[in-house]
Design a protein that fits this description.
This protein is mainly α and 93 residues long. It has five helices and no strands.
Length: 93
Amino acid sequence: LINNPELNDFLEGVKIESAHQTERWGIEHEENKYPHDYSLVIDKLKGKLAVAIWENNEEKYRHHLITVSAVCFNAFRQILKEGTRMNHFFKNK
């Protein structure tokens, strides 16, 4: 299920994509990211959104919107989890 993107139900799509990202890259990889790491991924996806607009490809555009939202969700989760670099970064400021 998590390797099949959902493009019609936004919130369900974000849940599925979030799980897909965690499975693909691993929990340890996510927990070792700093805030700027997530920002760079979002910047890359913004470029993909722009390309989808220029290509007039609504399906890709929806997919990239869901993907960037899942990245934001995963970043937010890492802030809340004890012991992650995101949590450590913000708690020590």
